[in-house]
Amino acid sequence: QVQLVESGGGLVQAGGSLRLSCAASGSTFNENAAGWYRHPPGKEREWVATITAGSVTRYAASVKGRFTISRDNAKNTVYLQMNNLSPEDTAVYYCKAGNSPLNVAFGVWGRGTQVTISS
Hints:
119 residues; 7-stranded mixed beta sheet
């Protein structure tokens, strides 16, 4: 069973940047897709980005062009580089390890890391 630990959250001003990390344990992590979701206050959890086992990336329209998902298989880690942040990006960000090489429809969740953007 894969276990995930997110880090890198914090408080930054609008226009700033953060890089989230998701470190995984387990032998199958690099064989499958991984993704990031977020849960804004008072809203439903939403998908942010996915990276497949082959490093093909997909993004939600709200973050495309500002966020970049990447993976370092040697470190069993997935990253989310977030630039030009706005208060609307404030949320708890969750990493998810899929059980398929192509998507994260089913898989294991991390515990989340708080990102807060001040105006």
